[in-house]
């Protein structure tokens, strides 16, 4: 709408005034906030922006290619894709404790990003060397980091934390979304021409499938999980609720599959199977602090279960998670 277009123009001018002819680096994750920040900054300064996209091998099906198609193929932005899957899996080998896994993934992420950013700030690699680090910080993040969250006595889950990076890299911080709420960020994304599907995507945690594969993370597990998860999401997007006319993807706040490294016996044709289990998780929430499990239609659950078991060799049982938050959390780790 007109208001948002006015906002885009204003934000573009502000970014140009702030950075002048200096270069900017941005860590692109594929999530809504970093994507909208990248699209906005690219609109303002074009090739003065270089995005660094760290693929930790724990992304969803086709996610890396989708990010590249969008930003390089369509927006013609400069994106460096770092394929660090082996490095991440190597460091996660033999580690099954959830907090330890989160810390390793977070630490490696910062390491890989810093190494790439250092190349771009060193003179030679780019014209003058980047002077700015852009982040997709939004207003709720600003409040959270100064407010209640840091005072919490118990850490339930340590989140990805990139605080302190600009100082470590000797870069100035550019945060063009820091006055906006999530809804406004989404509207801005649409106004910038990002696809509705990307802008209205469910949230995805920084550690990715690393916290959706229980216990030790293995490449084979990640491959099975990606396929099961893609089927679940495809069916949620394809199935409409008659009463509201909305898809079940729109009616849920977050939905995904979880890989359980547990084997159970099944029967396929006239043979016995002994394969892994997948749990489906779908929740409805307004703030992600509390959440109810979604009352998905049985017909939808039935279709997803039969497709996963028939199409993903290696999975022979599907369960549905009927735990609310609290006392459960949304993610399993
Ligand atoms: P929980 O599992 O704590 O999740 O109920 C609440 C919301 O936070 C997301 N989540 C994360 N997001 N980095 C993130 O960016 C993380 O480390 C992380 N852990 C959980 C989760 O997907 C849910 O939306």
Automatic annotation (TrEMBL):
Its EC number is 6.3.5.2. Pathway: Purine metabolism; GMP biosynthesis; GMP from XMP (L-Gln route): step 1/1. The lineage of its organism: Bacteria, Pseudomonadati, Pseudomonadota, Betaproteobacteria, Burkholderiales. GO terms for molecular function: GMP synthase (glutamine-hydrolyzing) activity. Catalyzes the synthesis of GMP from XMP. It catalyses: XMP + L-glutamine + ATP + H2O = GMP + L-glutamate + AMP + diphosphate + 2 H(+). The chain holds residues 207 to 539 of 539 of the full protein. The gene is guaA. It comes from Ottowia pentelensis. This is GMP synthase [glutamine-hydrolyzing]. Residues 2-201 form the GMPS ATP-PPase domain. Keywords: ATP-binding, Glutamine amidotransferase, GMP biosynthesis, Ligase, Nucleotide-binding, Purine biosynthesis. Homodimer. ATP binds at residues 29-35.
């Amino acid at each position: 709408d007109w208001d948002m277009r006015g906002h885009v123009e204003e934000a573009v001018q502000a970014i140009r005034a702030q950075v002048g002819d200096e270069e900017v680096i941005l860590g692109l994750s594929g999530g809504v906030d970093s994507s909208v920040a990248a699209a906005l900054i690219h609109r303002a300064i074009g090739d003065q922006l270089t995005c660094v996209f760290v693929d930790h091998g724990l992304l969803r099906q086709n996610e890396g290619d989708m990010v590249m198609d969008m930003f390089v193929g369509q927006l013609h932005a400069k994106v460096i894709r770092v394929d660090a899957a082996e490095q991440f899996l190597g460091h996660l080998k033999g580690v099954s404790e959830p907090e330890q896994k989160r810390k390793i993934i977070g630490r490696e992420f910062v390491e890989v990003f810093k190494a790439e950013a250092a190349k771009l700030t060193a003179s030679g690699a780019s014209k003058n060397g980047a002077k700015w680090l852009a982040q997709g910080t939004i207003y709720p993040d600003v409040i959270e980091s100064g407010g209640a969250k840091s005072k919490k006595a118990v850490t339930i889950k340590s989140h990805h934390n990139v605080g302190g990076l600009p100082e470590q890299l000797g870069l100035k911080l550019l945060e063009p979304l820091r006055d906006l709420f999530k809804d406004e960020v989404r509207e801005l994304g649409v106004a910038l021409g990002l696809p509705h599907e990307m802008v209205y995507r469910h949230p995805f945690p920084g550690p990715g499938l690393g916290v959706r594969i229980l216990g030790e993370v293995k490449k084979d597990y990640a491959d099975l999980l990606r396929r099961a998860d893609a089927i679940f999401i495809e069916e949620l997007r394809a199935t409409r609720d008659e009463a509201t006319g909305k898809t079940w993807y729109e009616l849920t706040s977050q939905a995904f599959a979880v890989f359980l490294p547990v084997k159970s016996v099944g029967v396929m044709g006239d043979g016995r199977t002994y394969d892994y289990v997948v749990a489906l998780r779908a929740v409805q929430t307004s703030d992600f602090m509390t959440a109810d499990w979604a009352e998905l239609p049985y017909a939808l659950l039935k279709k997803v279960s039969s497709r996963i078991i028939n199409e993903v060799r290696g999975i022979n049982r599907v369960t549905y998670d009927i735990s609310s938050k609290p006392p459960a959390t949304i993610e399993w780790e």
